[in-house]
User: Fold this.
Amino acid sequence: MTQTLVPGQNCPVPASLLSVSIRAGAAADFSAFRLFAGGKTRRDEDFVFYGQKRNDDGTISLSHDACSGVFSVDLARLAPDVEKVALAVTSDFPTVARLSSLTLEAAQGAECLLRCSVEVVRHDEAALILGEFYRRNGQWKFRFVAQGFRGGLKPLAEFYGVDVADDAPVPPCPASSGPAHPGQAPSRPAPAGASASSRPASLGKIVLTKASPRIDLTKHTLAGGMYRVNLNWNRAFTSRPSGLAGLFNRNNGIDLDLAAYVRLKNGDKTIVQALGKRFGSLEQPPFVKLLGDDRTGSQADGEWIHINGDRIDDLAEIIIFTFIYAGAPNWNATDAEVRVDIPGQPRIETRLVDGNEPLPMCAIARIINSGGKLSIERLERYFRGHEDMDRFFGWGFTWRAGWK
Assistant:
């Protein structure tokens, strides 16, 4: 029998695999927090949200679209020292009241166990704790909370012990005043007793990995402005390697070239790269531009590609790739890192860590625009050269030798 709760009420739930469905009347984000003593998280994996949809042991996972989210919560497999699992919603609008409706249902298989409805018109907060699963005398219970934070997801996450790093500033011209090196966005110190490695996840950054290779930005209305893609790497090494991938540039350092394949909605396609001086354009198709070529390693912040976000509706697909032009014995020696900065979104980062074979070209990430909403997918796939990569992705270009 389904129990209908009002804020403050609780009811027992079975210690089993439960499905929790949250439905809003407008675009929203959904998050879960695995909590320990003191009602706090301990590390990154305790926070499940759009940038990290599964925790480390698989006891909590999220699937979602713009207006609804479904959490899978396996109470039976949660570690004994887990005291609570909190579920929350953050409105894409200034207040939760703009959602028009908000409900939560928890089910065991096909049986609906409980239902909660929030009177959103009463709430002027941007984020709400909807409810918490909690242990009491060896029994799991659920409490309907419906309490919020006017500041949105950031104070909500901090309430549960998540250390939220502020976004590093992005300058208008990377050549004149570059941002901090990737991964060095300022943040507060870790909570007392927590090591740097166990510090909770930052909302200011999403790291794409082999285990979590994709981020969907479908929950937000994308802002215009400039989208920035940065490639940074370790340019120096001490010994001369052999083979094609071991050539030296003028400074005996590593020279990587950042490039992009661009496909427009009208079917036109092109390559933006330094080879052949195909630097692209922001005001004309393809609305993607490579900002120069750092052959000497003098730019502390690496190479940049800019994407005109005001023309995002004209763009269908962008594949960001790079190749070793000179100086690297292997990809692991480059210590290469790519980040994507999109206005109004967390910074997205990925590292090139799997390039063990001496293949000089790497497809890094794919940006797909579907109906005006973006997804970014980590690729990290290595190739012998442009033609090999072209055949794999089916671009259909004719290639000839190029230089810069």
